[in-house]
Amino acid sequence: MSGAGATRRTRAAGAGASAATAIDVGVEGIRVAFGDTVALDEVTLDVPAGQVTAVVGGDGAGKSTLLRVLARRITPSAGAVRTLSKAEIGYQPSTSGVWNSLSVAENIAFVGQSFRMSASRVRRRSDELLQRAGLTAARDRLGWDLSGGMRQKLGFVLAILHEPRLVLLDEPSTGVDPVSRVELWRLIAATAAADRAVLMATTYLDEAARAASVTALDRGAVIAAGTADRIVAALPGRIALDPGDTPSWNSWRRGRVRHEWIAAASDDAAVRTPAVTPTPAEPPAPRAVTPDLEDALIAYTLARDPGERSGPAHEREPGPSATRHDGPVAGAVVAAGRGVTRRFGSQLAVDDVSLDVSTGEIVGLIGANGAGKTTFLRALIGLDAPDAGTVELFGRAPDAASRERLGYVPQGLGLYRTISVDENAEFFARVYRMPRPHLPASLAEVERETVGSIGLGRQRQLAFTLALAHEPELLVLDEPTSGVDPLSRARLWDTIHAQAEAGRGVIVTTHYMQEAEQCTRLALLSQGRLLGLGSAAELTAGVTAVVVTTPEWQRAFTALGEAGLPTMLAGRTVRVAGVAPDRVREALGGIPAAVDEVAPTLEEAMVLRES
After folding, report:
1. Fewest CB within 10 A of the end CB: N or C in the chain?
2. What are the residue boundaries of the ABC transporter domain, all occurrences included (predicted)?
3. How far is 262 from 275, CA to CA, in rounded Å?
């Protein structure tokens, strides 16, 4: 199914783009296959100058293939491609494009030579871009000594060093913390404001919503395209609050409530008909909700192939049902750190952090790359010993016995990629001296395949299944949903909430602000220290934000940035956090614009606290 103008072509350049710089870039009806696997199927997309265009989708959706087609690295078997010469294209691969064995300055010099830039031009562009990226002091640091955010910003600098007219960015912010992501987005927005065409692949929907237009891919096909608002407005059917509390194929968790997709009137009865004979009692009528981009893309995904997505609920869950157990009493502390400090040589990774996790709650760790989240997590569960302070698991010092009472999904998932799904399950069973875990249908059908061949979504499902199989009392998740599509992410969070409601404690690290908002409490770490602790509402309390709406957004973005204000592109509007409206109007000068106060985002609150 396509929506919101998925097949319509838009040739107009972005607002403010001049005829001299207007370019014609896009694809129409392209098809790309690798053997029997169709990577792109009848995909149409336009990339106008003077704006950011986003393409979203989970791992394997076809985002990278689409960018590589436009970068002239792949030739489709069908369809038309309109792109520029390689000299006019800047391309940042998903690996950042940074040579780790070279210094920042050497990376820049190498790229400059590759594009035959003069030494003076390289020096001018290098000075300008490193200053804008906040990397001037890092000129002599090797690539592998940079943080994740710094590496991605350097990759972007390398991609635009030669001043390309078309900029292609393959998930430049995946795995990057929200603070660095904001800094990177400012660089991207400034590039679009200079009348460049920017196409960016991303899995972050809050990030995609800032783009002027969005194209969503699912298994190689376009399921929706247009502005974020138009995609939401044109979603098939409607979104309502689910009146029940039992997971179903067409519902998902959003914080303390469940959202439910209800098909259009012609299909409504089929969608809502349960698999068993209904009771005579009439179910309560669902209440409509205002959907966001995440809700809308889940609806498009379900509507595309409801038959495949409508199996029994337990088969789609990442792990077993969350039955209550005879563990700690409700509200009991299951993990505690007091004054935890951890050093690596002269580097202070965690500095005097205190945090508890109790049964029935979800505690989220948020903060920049290198803030100390993973280091604190490993110390809390006894994988690393703190240099100072104390940690307790279930009321005592962590040991092998107490760690058997927790389920752990590390960033790398903790799976053996070269052996089969079934062999991973057998190995887990032997470690925990228990019967082989039951695998849901979606994993059972690939149980003979190696883990490395089954795709990221199923790998994460397997990691969750194994982590929950022994019914742990504490669930520890380190960036559990990075790279998965919105529906798979929602399913995994269904499981996380179910575990907390069953009386287990949950602690999770995440870079997704929409996920962070689902946590009971959030702990904001920066440079190893705890900057804030509380709910999302408590962390954003007292923060102000304004949105600037103007047909001359490029001029407004540039003027506000030159005034030193913390600007953020949001479609064709500009957001400014922590600044009074009058100060924003003053910085705009004579640019005609509406300046309105709006509710701040959690991301904006994080950036202001860390600045």
Report:
1. C
2. 25-244, 335-552
3. 16
d(CA 356, CA 422): 36
Nearest to 353 by CA among 334, 375, 333: 375
Q: Residue 35: left (phi > 0), alpha (psi -120 to 50), or beta?
A: left
Question: Distance between CA 194 and CA 555 in Å, rounded?
Answer: 10
Assess contact for 67 and 170: CB atoms under 8 A.
yes
Residue 454: its pLDDT value, please? Answer: 76
In terms of Cβ atoms closer than 10 Å to its own Cβ (0-12, 13-18, 19+), residue 279 is: exposed
Q: Which residues contact 201 (CB under 8 A, 6 or more apart)?
A: 54, 55, 56, 63, 64, 66, 67, 94, 169, 170, 171
Q: Yes or no: say if 231 and 216 are a contact pair by the CB < 8 Å rule.
A: yes
Domains of the chain, earliest start first? 26-231 (3.40.50.300), 236-316 (no CATH), 333-530 (3.40.50.300), 540-610 (3.30.70)
Is 565 in contact with 573 (CB distance < 8 Å)?
A: no
Got the DSSP string for 574-597? EEEESS-HHHHHHHHTT---EEEE
Write the CA distances from 338 to 289, 356, 379, 393, 535, integer angstroms. Answer: 42, 8, 11, 12, 20
Residue 460, SS3? helix
φ and ψ of 225, to 5 deg: -155, 150
Amino acid at 182: V
Low-confidence ranges of the chain (pLDDT < 70): 1-22, 175, 177-178, 244-247, 255, 265-286, 305-330, 369, 483, 571, 611
Closest by CA to 42, choosing from 170, 215, 208, 211, is 215
Specify the pLDDT at position 540.
87
* Cα–Cα separations (whole angstroms), residue 279 to 103, 244, 273: 69, 14, 12
Q: What is the pLDDT of residue 272?
A: 40
pTM as predicted: 0.74
Q: Is 10 left (phi over 0), alpha (psi -120 to 50) or beta?
A: beta
Residue 196: the pLDDT is 92
